[in-house]
Each structure stands twice: as C-alpha cells, then as structure tokens.
Design brief:
The protein has one domain: Macroglobulin (MG2) domain (Immunoglobulin-like, Sandwich), CATH 2.60.40. Helices cover about 15% and strands about 45% of the residues. The protein has two helices and seven strands.
Length: about 120
C-alpha cells in the first residue's frame, strides 16, 4: 500500500485510537491488545491465507465498531470496518494480495477501545 493511502486511512482513526496503535507499536504486548478476552469473537478464515481472508466478528450491543489491519511494526495497513452496528454477527473481507508474506494483526475496536486482536498469516 502506498504512503498516500496509509496517511488518508490514519485520518479515519481518532486520536485515542492512534495513541493505542502507537502503544501497540512500542510494546508489542498481545495481552493488552485483548487477545486474552475475545469479547467480539473475532476470527479469520482461511488462516494462513494466500490472497484474501474473511474476518468474522460479533457485537453484543449497539456499538461503534472499527476493525483495522496493521503489520507487526505497528504500521496501519487498512481500515476494514468503521461504522455503528447493532447486535449481531458480521463479516468483512481482507484482501492481502498486494501485501508481502508475513504476519499481520487485526484489531477490533468497540466504542473506541481495543477489544480483541488476532494474527493473520500470509503465505
């Protein structure tokens, strides 16, 4: 992804969300990212992935939901979802065909707080 698209997607994140992503970049601490408390039941299939994966997640109450993908260095790759959702189970697609092989993180924000993070491996 080029720098122009990444910068424009960063504008879609609140200051609090950008701060949390910076903390993630500095600490790389998965437990503070919500991996140990899967409130949104975030999952990816297939994983490992060749070109594209389906990201499924649940929302238990009406919430502002944001799903973002970033690399292990903390660089924002893409905002996959950014909208208010009612209770339910949802799905979005993450196209990795233009990304290098490696591990990527998908973070699920609910009302501005990181609730869960999962790893997606591209072969």
């Amino acid at each position: 992804m080029d720098k122009k698209n990444t910068n424009s997607e960063k504008k879609n994140l609140s200051e609090e969300e950008l701060k949390k992503l910076q903390e993630i970049q500095q600490s790389k601490g998965f437990n503070e990212l919500g991996m140990s408390s899967p409130e949104m039941n975030l999952r990816s299939f297939p994983n490992p992935v060749k070109n594209s994966t389906s990201i499924k997640y649940s929302v238990n109450t009406s919430s502002q939901v944001k799903i973002v993908a970033f690399d292990l260095q903390g660089k924002l790759i893409r905002v996959l979802v950014d909208k208010k959702l009612e209770q339910g189970t949802f799905e979005t697609n993450f196209d990795l065909s233009n990304l290098a092989q490696g591990t990527y993180l998908i973070a699920a924000f609910k009302n501005g707080q990181v609730k869960q993070t999962i790893k997606v491996v591209k072969n």
